[in-house]
TrEMBL record, chain A:
This is Proline dehydrogenase. Keywords: Oxidoreductase. Transmembrane segments: none annotated. The keyword Oxidoreductase applies. One of its GO terms (molecular function) is iron-sulfur cluster binding. Signal peptide: none annotated. SUPFAM superfamilies: 2Fe-2S ferredoxin-like (SSF54292). Residues 85-120 are annotated as: Disordered. The keyword Transmembrane helix does not apply. Pfam families: Fer2_4. InterPro entries: 2Fe-2S-bd_N, 2Fe-2S_ferredoxin-like_sf.
From TrEMBL, chain B:
Residues 5-311 form the FAD/NAD(P)-binding domain. It comes from the Bacteria. GO terms for molecular function: oxidoreductase activity. Pfam families: Pyr_redox_2. This is FAD/NAD(P)-binding domain-containing protein. Keywords: Oxidoreductase.
Length: 120, 457
């Protein structure tokens, strides 16, 4: 579907690839990982902790935290905000949204935010 | 970066850029900070360079004006893009802004200034309904952000639903970009494009443009209709569309096939930073908490100003006018000579009155609560179903706060940004201003060592 490109008369730079759980996904330089996945028809890339529900993009602007991925070993990044870089290795699945070493703090009232976790 | 600026502005949307530029013209030393890698905020969201778009303005009305302001500002002020602000403090007349630079290898940065303009905008306000967490269900703003920021069309067969004038540009944008938009379902009355409130604000061209675009693509636009359920195994395949009565109770239903739903019931201003500083808030016409400001966009905290959606949802034009007023106030309060410009205040009053009329014309009616089933998730993060909220109420939770303590809605990753409004409604109250000591997620190591001077690191 090239219509959005025609709309703004885009002459995109050559695509590069990132690997998502081992599979190649094409990216136009500057796109976020979330947009590249969604654009490639991949609608979900994480499952929830309790109900194992599939999740992908929802808010698209970094507020819902549904789209979490692990990139090159860094966990819990918001795919919708994280600009893809050539050669990025994205891993998904239930663990992408869980706190591991280097976890992130949410607020002080007992979120996933990993009070028990050491920072980097 | 300088050790002390006159004014720090947070947010590079229409409000922040206009405010920063105005303050800089008035003689202030200004720094503008935004989390995004490119300026524009939500409305003027820019495409990455990699697209080499020759006609980026096709996606926004008035982009040229914004671009001129931005280019001028860049030459006059310090601009810190890719800087997420996670906390602000104020002591002895100085504001400290704590940021994280970068979207993955984050580095802490601290900015200090004598004054602060908060122009952090809003996010979508979704309502929960059965199936709202299925992949393929997006917020309306999310679909817009995919298009404006990434040239990704949210889906092939798309339904647009919710309430408010924002549904029109979203649907028109999707249709122009090649999506098959199966319908726009406005839960409030469809006022008829000729009587559409956008026309009243002299935005006739814009509203008619969206209307013409929808007509050209044969997109049906129905009032008193809503998507009350989304269905599919693992991904969206169809939605239940209901005709509603005036309280939003379903009267009749039918099924519409689609792979994507883009929906929203208005916006929620992002208030964690003004709340951290102790700025007073008030309930807006739609019950949403917003920052209380005077005619000069001063908050209740000296030296702290707010503009744009932070002071009430009103769109890009009002945001820009407010930014200019706030920039002038900040300069005047620091002793710069700023001649009065009553025309600007009158313009703001007119636009603000119109924004209030819009909020009143597109309210959220209580009938949506009847769309939920016992097992419908109210909180997506902690996966709290309606039944758990009701159980908490049966156990004696009398307000949203105690529901949260007992059933945990709003305690997960998004900290209630997605479900806070709905939980407040279910508890029968207006949503409270958010108390989030950390506005952006942060690694614990950075949290432990927040005092670094601006010249280090
Ligand atoms: C997803 C979305 C899409 C929208 N699309 C449109 C549209 O297409 N047309 C339309 O008319 N209206 C749209 N709107 C409505 C929009 O709110 C207004 O039109 C307008 O952009 C408001 O201007 P503003 O300057 O108040 O805030 P915004 O334009 O929202 O700008 C706020 C800026 O603050 C930054 N920010 C917020 N918090 C932080 C922080 N903690 N640290 C650093 N930076 C921060 C953000 O990155 C953003 O750039 C959209 C809203 C949303 C939420
Ligand atoms: S889609 Fe909501 S945070 Fe990324």
């Amino acid at each position: 579907m090239n219509q959005p490109y025609d709309l703004v008369r885009a002459r995109p730079e050559p695509e590069f690839e990132i690997s998502v759980d081992g599979a190649p996904v094409p990216v136009i330089p500057g796109q976020t990982i979330g947009a590249a996945l969604h654009g490639a028809g991949i609608r979900s890339w994480r499952t929830t902790r309790i109900g194992a529900r599939p999740r992908g993009l929802f808010c698209g602007i970094g507020v819902c935290f549904d789209c979490l991925v692990t990139v090159n070993g860094s966990p819990s990044l918001r795919a919708c905000l994280t600009e893809a870089r050539p050669g990025d290795r994205v891993s998904t699945g239930a663990r992408a949204g869980q706190v591991g070493p280097g976890g992130r703090a949410g607020d002080g009232d007992g979120t996933d935010g990993g009070k028990t976790v050491n920072g980097r | 970066m300088k050790p002390l600026y006159d004014l720090a502005v947070i947010g590079a949307g229409p409000a922040g850029v206009a405010g920063a530029l105005t303050a800089s013209f008035a003689g202030l030393d200004v720094v503008l900070i935004d989390a995004a890698p490119r300026p524009g905020g939500q409305y003027f969201r820019h495409l990455p360079q990699g697209f080499n778009a020759q006609a980026p303005g096709a996606l926004h009305h008035g982009l040229d004006g914004f671009t001129r302001q931005w280019e001028t500002l860049r030459a006059r002020a310090d601009v810190l893009l890719g800087h997420k602000v996670w906390a602000v403090e104020r002591a002895e007349g100085t504001v400290t802004v704590r940021c994280l630079e970068g979207d993955r290898e984050e580095r802490p940065r601290t900015v200090t200034a004598r004054g602060l303009l908060i122009a952090t905008g809003a996010h979508d306000r979704p309502l929960p309904f059965p199936g709202w967490d299925l992949p393929g269900v997006l917020t309306a703003g999310g679909a817009q952000a995919l298009l404006k920021g990434n040239l990704v069309v949210a889906g092939r067969k798309v339904v647009v639903a919710g309430t408010g004038p924002f549904l029109l540009p979203v649907a028109a944008g999707l249709a122009e970009a090649g999506a098959d938009v199966r319908g726009v379902y406005e839960a409030n009355g469809r006022l008829g494009l000729a009587r559409h409130p956008l026309l009243a604000a002299g935005k006739a061209g814009e509203a008619l443009g969206y209307g013409a675009s929808l007509a050209r693509h044969r997109v049906p636009y129905r009032g008193r209709h809503a998507v009350i359920a989304a269905h599919g195994e693992g991904a969206l395949t169809h939605v239940t569309v209901a005709r509603l009565d005036s309280a939003w109770r379903p009267v009749s239903t039918r099924t519409v096939e689609c792979d994507t739903l883009a929906y929203g019931y208005g916006f929620v201003p992002q208030l964690e930073l003004p709340v951290q500083l102790g700025c007073a808030t008030r309930a807006d016409a739609d019950g949403s908490p917003v920052v209380t400001v005077d005619g000069g966009l001063r908050t209740s905290v000296p030296g702290v100003y707010a503009a744009g959606e932070s002071t009430g949802v009103g769109g890009a034009v009002l945001a820009e006018v407010e930014g200019r007023i706030a920039g002038r106030s900040a300069a005047a309060d620091l002793g710069r000579r700023v001649p009065p410009l009553p025309r600007l205040s009158r313009r703001r009053d007119r636009l603000a009155a119109f924004a209030k009329a819009l909020l009143e014309a597109y309210p959220v009616r209580p009938g949506w609560q009847g769309w939920l089933r016992d097992d419908t998730l109210v909180c997506r993060c902690e996966e709290v179903p309606l039944s758990a909220v009701r159980e908490a109420q049966d156990l004696g939770a009398i307000d949203a706060r105690s529901v949260k303590l007992l059933a945990r809605p709003g305690m997960g990753w998004c900290q209630g940004r997605m479900c806070g409004y709905a939980v407040a409604c279910l508890a029968g109250e207006d949503p409270a201003a958010p108390r989030r000591p950390i506005a952006q997620p942060i690694r614990l190591g950075d949290l432990a060592a927040p005092t670094r001077s601006p010249l280090e690191g």
